[in-house]
Amino acid sequence: MKQTAIVTGGSRGIGFAIARQLGQDGFNIAILDMNDQAAYQENLDLLAAQGTEYLYVKGNICNADDRRRLVQETVAKFGGIHVLVNNAGVAPKVRADLLEMTEESFDRVIGVNTKGNMFLTQAVAKQMLQQDFVGKKRGTIVNISSCSAVVSSTSRGEYCVSKAGVSMLTTLYADRLAPDGILVHEVRPGVIATDMTAGVQEKYDKLFASGAFPIARWGTPEDIAGVVSAFCSDKFAYTTGNYVDVDGGFHIQRL
User: What fold does the segment set 4-246 form as a domain?
Assistant: First the structure.
C-alpha cells in the first residue's frame, strides 16, 4: 500500500515545499489549510502534475472537529496515515514589546502553533497505533518548530514560547511513542524566505551582510523539505526526539 503523509499548512511556503517533496518521494498527500481550496489551486495542480494524489481539507487546526475530520477523511481516502508533518504556524499580527504583548495575541499564537500541534499529533498517533509496521517503523511525526525555540526575540515573545512548546512536544511524543514504532523528529528553521518573513526582509538582509550567519544567504522552503524527506525515510530508524537546525549555522556560538 502506498504511504500517506499529512502536511498541515501544506498549501504554500514551507508546507507546500514539504508536500511537493514527499509527493516526489512517493507519498499520497493530505493537506489541512484554512482557506478555500481555490486559493491554492495553482500549487495543488503542481502536485497533480507530478503524479501525486492529494486530499485538500479546509479546516482550522485549533478546532477539534476539524482535526477529527482531517484524520477521518485521510483514512477514508487513502487507508491510513504514515507521516504527520506539523507545519502549520502563525506569527504575531503585531510585533510588540514583551511588556506590551496582549493576551489575545498570546492565545492565538499558542493555539495554532502549540495546542493545535499537541492535539493533532494525539489524534494521528492513535490512528497510527492501529496500523501495521511499514518497513522499520509504524509512523513518523515531524514538527517544524523554529530557531526561536531557543533564540530570544522580545518583540515576538509569544512566538518564541509557542515554538519552545513544540520542542517539548517533540520530546514528549518521542518518549511516549518509540516503544510502538512511531518516531518523532523536529526541524528548526532559521531565516527562511516565505510570506512570514517578507515584512522584515531588510532586517535580515543586514544580518546576512554583517556575518551573523555562517552560510550567508536566505534559507529556502526546499532546504526544509529536504530534511523532512530524510526523516520520513528509513534512514533515521535508530533516532527519535532529536532536532536539526536548518539555519545556515546561526546556532553556532562564536567568539
Answer: Rossmann fold (3.40.50)
